[in-house]
Amino acid sequence: MFKHSRAEFGEDFVFGVAMAAHQIEGGQTDGRGSSIWDTFAATPGNIKNAENGSIACDHYNRWAEDLDLIRDGGFDAYRFSFSWPRLIPEGTGTVNQQGFDFYDRLIDGMLERGIKPLATLYHWDLPSALQDRGGWMNRATCEAFADYAAEVGRRFGDRLATTATFNEPWCVTVLSHLLGIHAPGYRDIRAASRAMHHVMLAHGLGIDALRAESVQNLGIVVNMEKCEPLTASPEDRKAAELGDAIFNQFFLDAALQGSYPSLVTDIIEPYLPTGWRGDMRQIARPLDWVGVNYYTRSLYKHDASIPSFPFVQSRGDLPKNDLGWETYPSALTEFLLRVSRNHPKLPIYVTENGMSGPDDDGRIDFFDKHFHAIREAQKSGADVRGYVAWTLVDNFEWAEGYDARFGIVSMDPETRERKPKGSYRAFQQMLTA
Ligand code: FCB
Questions:
Q1: Is 73 within a domain?
Q2: Of 67, 259, 304, 339, which has fewest CB within 10 angstroms of its CB?
Q3: Of 76, 75, 64, 164, whose CA–CA distance to 107 is shortest?
Q4: Does residue 359 belong to any structural domain of this protein?
């Protein structure tokens, strides 16, 4: 059980649980269009065990059961994402009524159960038709995103507690266009640089489109990872500073202050779209909150033989989850304080945090240590308004397939039957006490 209690965090503090459309829904029927994750998974070698999200947790059919679990666990909120290709199969143009009906049922189901809907518009499943035209490398995708945001805002906006444009721009761009690990699987610095800028432009346009539909409580969700030098050498320190600028500053600085860190633009300027500076005001629209996803740290070693970003990353010897991610809770305190120092008026939510693996006692301990990290940040003045655990049900963990298990509820791969783990009970006990 947890050592922390709900009351410590403050009266209106929100506890939630998160899942994302492509990782759970399945339901490729009823008019849903193809996404880049469908084709990425169909391409040999991209996903562990050649798995895919075509059925996933069958949440498309089992959503009511999942919402019951969220309610019975005592959670206040459910952070979910809309599937763009389910709503607008080709990315632009004709909408799919059955997709809108699905999210109507889901959102109304949350409200009936007293669960606050925390929505994300883009959790990585870009419609394939837009990828055919260059996806995030193409500026036109920003306009398409704004139209999609407006459509969602019009149909659902008045029922959403918070709405985020993007989940983890670093993953959408660097991981997916430079490192080639996530869809669409590019390894190209020009592709990545253009995606980095266009995703942020789409964010800013999306915010305006949502506001124009009177949607309230708008934000963005970034992932932060502690970047530390492998050794105390000045070269490794510089490598870690560059890592931090790419990972932890680039997207937040753009959204919140309309600038990119020069450490990064000094390198990627030749690859950015011409005239990018002229977009920075459009990118930095006022936000109502910011979401921080936090999992782990990375160690940086300078490597002069690597062009552009001259470093290699590795893990250290802290306790790890089964994906090799080190547990490092104190960095969460640091990040929350950093964000609140740089942007004193902006409420912060921890929008994801969790641990993969079979060791459920370890998972309980992991959550508890991060609760402590949040309390430390609150005590030092950070305005942290909520904590959202990743994730409810074990699900399709992207390139890691179904081997990774972040859930507080397990799922039988054959029957898809859900079974609460001890960590679910720990939340239930803390939240309903
Ligand atoms: C985050 C993603 C989420 C899940 C967790 C483990 O980067 O937002 O979908 O994959 O990691």
A1: yes
A2: 304
A3: 64
A4: yes
Residue 340: inside a domain, yes or no?
Answer: yes
**Residue 257: closest CA among 200, 211, 309, 217:** 200
Residue 1 inside a domain? The answer is no
Residue 76: its pLDDT value, please?
A: 98
Task: Note whether 326 and 316 are within 8 A (CB).
Answer: yes
- The 10s digit of each residue's pLDDT in 116-145 is 999 999 999 999 999 999 999 999 999 999
Q: How far apart are the first and last CA of the chain?
A: 12
Summarize pLDDT for 155-181 with one digit per residue, the tens: 999 999 999 999 999 999 999 999 999
Instruction: Please choose, from the candidates 423, 420, 417, the residue with its C-alpha nearest in 3D space to the C-alpha of residue 62.
Output: 417
Q: Is position 352 annotated as part of the catalytic site?
A: yes
Which one is catalytic: 25, 326, 352, 397? 352
Specify whether the backbone of 10 is left (phi greater than 0), alpha (psi in -120 to 50) or beta. left
Q: Is 270 exposed, middle or buried (0-12, 13-18, 19+ CB in 10 A)?
A: exposed
Q: Smallest Cα–Cα separation from 389: which of 66, 78, 40?
A: 78
**Dihedral sign, CA of 26, 32, 36, 39?**
positive
Among 168, 225, 397, 400, the one annotated catalytic: 168
Give the domain range for residue 171: 6-432
Mean pLDDT of the region 287-308 = 98
Tell me how far CA of residue 378 lies from CA of 105, 112, 264, 352, 375, in angstroms.
Answer: 36, 32, 31, 17, 5
Q: Tell me if residue 223 falls in helix, strand or coil.
A: strand
pTM of the model: 0.98
Query: How buried is 323 (Cβ within 10 angstroms: 0-12 exposed, 13-18 middle, 19+ buried)?
Result: middle
CB 227 within 8 A of CB 297: yes
Ramachandran sector of residue 208 (left: φ over 0; alpha: ψ -120 to 50; beta: rest): alpha
Contact 203, 255 (CB under 8 A): yes
- What CATH number is associated with residue 78? 3.20.20.80
Ligand 1 probe mutation, 397, 400, 403, 408, most atoms within 8 A of CB: 397
Question: Which residue has tokens 């959670």?
Answer: 75
Number of structural domains, the chain?
1
Separation between Cα atoms, residue 104 and residue 396, nearest integer Å: 24
